[in-house]
Amino acid sequence: MQSYLSIGEVAKIRNIDVQSLRYYEKLGILIPAYVNPENGYRYYSLEQIMVLDTIILCIDLGIPLKKLKEYVDDSGQLEFERLLKD
């Protein structure tokens, strides 16, 4: 079974606000790996920490977050290689 981190755990690990994670979801650039249908709690996979790190790096570099949506494929994965090339 895959292990998940709660939205609060992810926020704490990367020292960001939970509202930021919800905003990234709204933009479609970091969709939770699992949302509990009973209570709506959001959970993220360990692999998604790397996506979050990329988002944070883009913020630091001044890349608009809305532009990142162009680099998310149909399965919801961020296309790192294409992003770096551009």
What's the short story on this structure?
The chain is mainly alpha-helical and about 90 residues long. The chain has helices at about 5-15, 20-25, 50-60, 65-70, 80-85, and strands spanning about 5, 35, 40-45.
Shape: globular
Query: What is the strand tally?
Result: 3
Uncertain spans, ≥5 residues at pLDDT below 50?
none
CATH fold node name: Multidrug-efflux Transporter Regulator, Chain: A, Domain 2
Overall mean pLDDT score? Answer: 89
Largest sheet: 3 strands, antiparallel
Could you explain the architecture of this structure?
It is a single chain. The model has no long low-confidence stretch (mean pLDDT 89). The longest helix has 14 residues. This protein has a single domain, classed as Multidrug-efflux Transporter Regulator, Chain: A, Domain 2, CATH 1.10.1660.10. It has five helices and three strands. 48% of the residues lie in helices and 10% in strands. The protein has a three-stranded antiparallel β-sheet with strand order 1-3-2.
Defining key terms:
single chain; 86 residues; mainly alpha; Multidrug-efflux Transporter Regulator, Chain: A, Domain 2; 5 helices; 48% helix
What order do the helices and strands come in, and which of them pair?
Layout: E1 4-6, H1 7-13, H2 18-27, E2 34-35, E3 42-45, H3 48-61, H4 65-68, H5 80-85
